[in-house]
Amino acid sequence: MNKKNNYRWFVLGIGVLAQATFAMGFAGIPITGILMRDAYHFSLYELGFVLGSMGLGVAASEIIWGILTDKLGDKIVLTLGLWSSAVVFVVIAILLTPEASLGGVKSLHLAIALAIAGALGGSINSSSGRTIMSWFDDSERGFAMSVRQTAIPVGGAIGTGLLPSLAYTYGFEVTFIVLAATGFIAGLIVVFFINSKHTELKHAVQSALAVPSPLKSFQVWRIVISAGFLTVPQMAVLTFGGVYMRDVLDIDLASISIILIVVQLGGGILRIWSGYYTDRKKNRIALLKYYAICGGIASLVLCLMVNNTYMGVVFLMLTGLFGHAWHGISYTEAAVKAGVERAGTALGMVGTTVFIASFLTPILVARIAHGYGWGAVWGAVAILTFSALLCFISFSKKKEPLTSIGQDNES
């Protein structure tokens, strides 16, 4: 029994490894943007198109991978995602790098390749999440899923530190080969050390058709849509927080880097605490409401104090922290509402809105900042963050009132 109990934590560790492996490329490649622009001779428009393509690929494939995870099992889809995206990185290294191409690389070709890598690697989000859902019961799922979600900023931090250095020192050919190698190695670890509960779950359910699809569940869709709104403050801070601090607050680049690293690390810690707390209190929806309110207020104060250096930094950090904190409990709640046997589909639905918002937020911020200024940017972020509350208006009011954050209520 102890071995079985200990094994689920080992499974969680492998899920974290797989998620971090994907995040290395997803978050690390954009950090090489300055080097990529010079090496590939891309215009700023071409560079933005290329760097956004991987997120588009993920958004386009998330629900499909979620459905396939429920049908084929998490181990098969997780391995397939890691290895197939690694193959695409090998192809990019061979054909679509400045070192490998004699005639130059067109932005469209590289964008398509990265979109395919994102579409294939996006399978890791649903499959690793379903693995955790199947090995942990509801008393620990929030904590386990939050730990898994923390792998994204951790993997992103590794990619942020590693990939630009590789690209600068050895070129993009080696950079993409390293991404491919990590994907292949992570896939081997999954093959040899993960035991899937897919067959066991299929036998436990009389008929998979008897379980309603999350795609038809209004309860699941409200969580899914709220996740899209709650992604806005996170991405606004991560993508343009540095530009705002540099242009408006006149903060030096070293300090900006430290501030954004603190936001990501603090956000990861807050994710883990949120999962642990809601496992004990059974109040995931209530805490999601509080994060929407707190994130919206922080953005609104930032809007009003946009030119004040001290207040600007403090409330930018708070906006980013609240924008990070909700991930684990939102994914968990959607999967719990759907049921373990349909968890892959539900996780894919959440991932779709998260990555769509991740793609659209920088575009929205750039347009508003250019046309109306940074005060308008943070005002818009506040409005969109508050909009998440609309998804919870009639969510089990008797079971989860907003004042229930410290009480033991049902999720």
Automatic annotation (TrEMBL):
Transmembrane segments: 9-35, 47-69, 76-96, 108-129, 150-168, 174-194, 223-245, 251-273, 285-307, 313-331, 343-366, 372-395
Protein name: Sugar phosphate permease
Annotated ranges, domain Major facilitator superfamily (MFS) profile: 11-399
tRNA processing is among the record's keywords: no
Organism taxonomic ancestry: Bacteria, Pseudomonadati, Pseudomonadota, Gammaproteobacteria, Orbales
Keyword Transmembrane: yes
Gene Ontology MF terms in the entry: transmembrane transporter activity
Alphabetic keyword roster: Membrane, Transmembrane, Transmembrane helix
